[in-house]
Structures are given as structure tokens and as C-alpha cells.
């Protein structure tokens, strides 16, 4: 009898509930195929929680997440709440939940599916075989450092400070080494150690820890060079780890290798195996309620949950293979279809993926 895994499900707003419903079908199918047991608990979050509970992150939703082994999140937000005061905005709930759950890294895979590589702006032969993960530090660096204005000799000056302490670097770097160990065992650590003191601390820390992971092949890459290499040789990367601002920029660059935002999954991790999994896209109010959203980003977020939180590597692979085979057979939602008149809906895509799952 497999151990029961608790998953907190917060569907959110707009297309959130539509894409999460398809991901839940995939969870059920995995139980059937592998004998795993998932206990799903549902909670209100985002705009819908503001409407029903008067706050984007109700205490009971947070407690439900804290009890769980992993969280599956759809998306939040929409025009209805855009002009609300800050404490009554869906995005405030997102920041709040990440903070309350101690999530200090954001993980974004960029996988190029062979049959979609013509859809990218890069040459197909450059993209061939690309399957990488960007691990971005989320709670430190220049975004959180002291900021102020002052009068200088030549008028007003603005100051942003970038601070990292050795523990912050160490925990994210260890996490990246551990993820690399579960993948192709190659880690690129990205910094600007030729210029920045925080980057020198970063690099020293990486080098000090590296001998504990002798099976992982480590390379140091300067951030400007990394931006170039991602376009020149994306398939040579496996895991990329970097600080907050560099990761913000590089993860968006890497995302564009793959084409549609409807395909991109993500994870936010803290200490231990707990993680929050969600598609990169938002609540897409422009297509909400029409049943046409692409559920693949959310379905691939479940695959990521299996790999990173539960250690169900084979089940994760089964999901990825099912997505691949459905795409190879030519099925497309509107966002990735060349011929929009042949596009299929959210439910159809989910059903096809579930049907294609096999061991
Ligand atoms: P968005 O990602 O929701 O939509 C951008 C464009 O991509 C839209 O044209 C949308 O139709 C399309 N799109 C997104 N996901 C898709 C999918 N699965 N299938 C097909 N097409 C898809 O970003 P936008 O429009 O900037 O934001 C909309 C709302 O979502 C805002 O309220 C924003 O604050 C919120 N948002 C929430 C996020 C979250 O919950 N983590 C992340 C980003 C935005
Ligand atoms: Mg960004």
C-alpha cells in the first residue's frame, strides 16, 4: 500500500479552475497506473477568496497548504480586482503564500517538444534536444536590498543595494545540486564574479560545496555569456542556478525557447521536499470560461511535483511522454495551433493526455 500524499488544490480565478480540473484527472490516472494514493483538499485563494472571505489568502487555505505535502495552484487575478486596495488584491495573496510557506526558490523547466520546435523564433536545429531547468533564488538580492534616493553633486541619485549572506546562497545551491543529481548531473552556476562582490561570495560558496556532489559536473558561467549561450547552445544546459535578478531575466529568456506560455510549468521550493506547483501563465481573463485554455502547463506542473517533491520519477516521465505523444499526433489547443480552425478544447486535451498515459 503506497503512502498517502496530501495535495492542497487551489484553483483560483479565470482559467485556473479549468486547467486545474485537467491536472486532477492526471493525478487520478496516476493512482490507477501506479497504485499511488493522493488525498486532495480544495481551498479558496485569490479573487474568489476576496469575494467569498474578504481576503485573498484565508487562514484556512494557508493551514490546508501547511498540512499538505505539496500544493497545486491554478492562477489568480482578473480585472474585477485590479483597482482594489493592496490588501484586497489577488497578487498580495501570491506573495503572502510564498512567504508563509518559506519558498525561497523558483524553478522553471524549458523543454522543447520536437513537434513544436518550428513554432519557436529560433532555428529548429539549435533547439533540438533542449531540456533545462532554471533554479532562481527568490527572496534575496537587489530586489530586497535597501533602496533610497539622495542628493549628489550632480543632482538626484538613486541607490539599490544587493545583499546575499552565505546561508542564502548555500541553501539554494544545495537544492540545485540535488536537482541536478536527479537529472543529467550537469550544473551551470551563473554569476558576475568578475565584477560583483555578492557574485564572488556566490562562487566561493558553490566551489566549497561542489566536492559534496562529485557526480555533478559543474561549470561557472558569467551572466552575460549565459544569456548568449542560451540562444546559441540551449541543449547543452541541464540545471542553471542563479541569484534573483539574473534568474528573473534568464528564466524569461529560457521560456521563449519553447514557444507558448500555455506549455510552461513551474515550482517554488523551500527546505525539504515541500513545493508549490503552478503554471507560469496567469488567469487569462480574455479566454476564461470558454473551455479553450491549454492545460499542458498545469499538467506538466504535476509531472514536476512527482519528480521534485514525491520522487515519483517514472510517473513524471509517463506524464511527459503522454503530452509528447498527444502533440506528436497533431492535437493542439488554440495557443499552439497553426490552423486555429482545428484547435481542440481544454477538456479534450486533458482527456487525450490521460488516455495516452501508460507504463
Ligand atoms: P496571462 O498569462 O493570464 O495571459 C497572457 C496571454 O496568454 C493571454 O492572451 C492569455 O489568453 C494567454 N494564455 C495564458 N495562459 C494560457 C493558456 N493556458 N492557454 C492558452 N492561452 C493562454 O497574463 P496576463 O494577461 O498578463 O494576466 C492576466 C491576469 O493573471 C492578471 O490579473 C495577472 O495579475 C494574473 N497573473 C497571475 C499569475 C499567477 O497566478 N501566478 C501570473 C501572471 C499573471
Ligand atoms: Mg519576470
From TrEMBL:
Q: Which cofactor does it need?
A: Mn(2+); Mg(2+)
| UniProt-annotated binding residues for NAD(+) | 78-91, 282-294
Q: Which domain of life is it from?
A: Bacteria
Which residues make up the binding site for Mg(2+)? 224, 248, 252
User: Enzyme group, top EC level?
Assistant: oxidoreductase
Mainly localized where? cytoplasm
Where is this chain's protein located in or outside the cell?
Cytoplasm
Entry EC number(s)? 1.1.1.85
Q: Specify which residues bind substrate according to the UniProt entry for this protein.
A: 98, 108, 136, 224
SUPFAM superfamilies, alphabetized: Isocitrate/Isopropylmalate dehydrogenase-like
* Note accompanying the cofactor annotation: Binds 1 Mg(2+) or Mn(2+) ion per subunit.
What UniProt keywords apply to this chain's record, in alphabetical order? Answer: Amino-acid biosynthesis, Branched-chain amino acid biosynthesis, Cytoplasm, Leucine biosynthesis, Magnesium, Manganese, Metal-binding, NAD, Oxidoreductase
Positions bearing the site annotation: Important for catalysis: 143, 192
Which SMART domains does the entry mention? Iso_dh
The pathway noted for it is: Amino-acid biosynthesis; L-leucine biosynthesis; L-leucine from 3-methyl-2-oxobutanoate: step 3/4
Q: What's a GO cellular component annotated to this UniProt protein? A: cytosol
- One Pfam entry name: Iso_dh
User: Residues in domain Isopropylmalate dehydrogenase-like?
Assistant: 6-353
What InterPro entries does the record tag this protein with? IsoCit/isopropylmalate_DH_CS (IPR019818), IsoPropMal-DH-like_dom (IPR024084), Isopropylmalate_DH (IPR004429)
Provide the family line. Answer: Belongs to the isocitrate and isopropylmalate dehydrogenases family. LeuB type 1 subfamily.
What subunit structure does UniProt give? Homodimer.
Biological role: Catalyzes the oxidation of 3-carboxy-2-hydroxy-4-methylpentanoate (3-isopropylmalate) to 3-carboxy-4-methyl-2-oxopentanoate. The product decarboxylates to 4-methyl-2 oxopentanoate.
What is the recorded name of this protein?
A: 3-isopropylmalate dehydrogenase
What's the source species' lineage? Bacteria, Bacillati, Bacillota, Bacilli, Bacillales
